[in-house]
C-alpha cells in the first residue's frame, strides 16, 4: 500500500490517498468552500484505469462510497485550519479507511481466483 498526501494551497484542498497494488484507492479530501464558508472532509473510494498517458478514476465500484466525515463553518479561510481539520478527518475515518482497504484487497483476491480458474 502506498500513501500519498497532496497539498494545494491555491486550490484550498488537501488530499491523502491510500493506493493498493490493484489500483484500488481510498481518499480523504479536505476542501474549503468559499461560497458557503465551510471546510468539508470527504472519504471516497475509486479504482484507477490507465489508458495511454491518461489515468482515469472510476468511482462506482463495489458500492459507491462517498461519505462526509466533517463539515465545519469558518468565518475566514486559513490554511492552518484546513490542515487541522484534515488531520482530524484522518483520525475520525481511520477505521473506515482500514475497512475499505481490507474490502479492496479481498475483492482483488477474488478476481485473481476467478481469472486463474
Question: Care to describe what's here?
Answer:
With 117 residues, the chain is α+β, with helices and mostly antiparallel strands. The longest helix is centred in the last third of the chain and has 23 residues, at 94-116. The protein is elongated, with a radius of gyration of 16 Å. The protein is built from two helices and six strands; from the N terminus they run ββββββαα. It starts with a strand and ends with a helix. The mean pLDDT is 85. Strands 1, 2, 3, 4, 5 and 6 form a six-stranded antiparallel beta sheet that branches.
Structural class: alpha+beta
The counted number of beta strands is: 6
Q: What integer is the average pLDDT?
A: 85
Measured on Cα atoms, how large is the radius of gyration?
16 Å
What is the number of helical segments per DSSP (H or I, 4+ residues)? 2
**What profile does the largest beta sheet have?**
6 strands, antiparallel
The first-to-last residue Cα distance is 26 Å
The sequence of SSEs as H and E is EEEEEEHH
The geometry reads as: elongated
Give unreliable regions as ranges: none
Helix content: 25-40%
Amount of beta strand: 35-45%
Amino acid at each position: 500500500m502506498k500513501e500519498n498526501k497532496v497539498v494545494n494551497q491555491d486550490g484550498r484542498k488537501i488530499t491523502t490517498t491510500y493506493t493498493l497494488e490493484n489500483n484500488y484507492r481510498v481518499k480523504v479530501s479536505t476542501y474549503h468552500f468559499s461560497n458557503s464558508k465551510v471546510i468539508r472532509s470527504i472519504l471516497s473510494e475509486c479504482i484507477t484505469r490507465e489508458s495511454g498517458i491518461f489515468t482515469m478514476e472510476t468511482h462506482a465500484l463495489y458500492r459507491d462510497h462517498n461519505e462526509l466525515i466533517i463539515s465545519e463553518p469558518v468565518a475566514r479561510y486559513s490554511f492552518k485550519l484546513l490542515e487541522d481539520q484534515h488531520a482530524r478527518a484522518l483520525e475520525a475515518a481511520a477505521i473506515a479507511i482500514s475497512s475499505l482497504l481490507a474490502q479492496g484487497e479481498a475483492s482483488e483476491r477474488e478476481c485473481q481466483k476467478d481469472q486463474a480458474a
